[in-house]
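Table S2 (text version). Query chain:
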Amino acid sequence: MEFLQQNISWVMLAVFSGGMLLWPMLRGPGGISVTEATTLINREDGVVLDVREANEWSTGHIPNARHIALGQLAGRLSELDKFKGKPVVVCCASGNRSSSACGALRRAGFERVYNLAGGIGAWSEAGLPVTTKS
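Corresponding structure-token output:
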């Protein structure tokens, strides 16, 4: 106990450092890469959910993706119920909105939900196909 009192600043620094190391694990995964996403889509019949706004969607999206804007997701979750047993790859422009959508899907009982790190931008940069067809 005397050691702790004499070295309180070092103890606090150690606790803070440990907390910072644990934070990413507690926060959850940051997202999957484009390569991991294509593996889920091709090998496990994964579903792509694009949560961007309609004007963003119309400029180009992942082929065969389903479109539900993040603001509409809560009211349209029933449309996705048939995919609860499949991997769901969620994307947006950069990965921020899709992270929120992943949380909503997990709360709704979807177990295999993945955020596409870097969003549609990362997909396009990887040279993967983008379409404007609905």
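Notes on Table S2: The longest helix spans residues 8-27. The domain at 31-125 is CATH 3.40.250.10 (Oxidized Rhodanese; domain 1).
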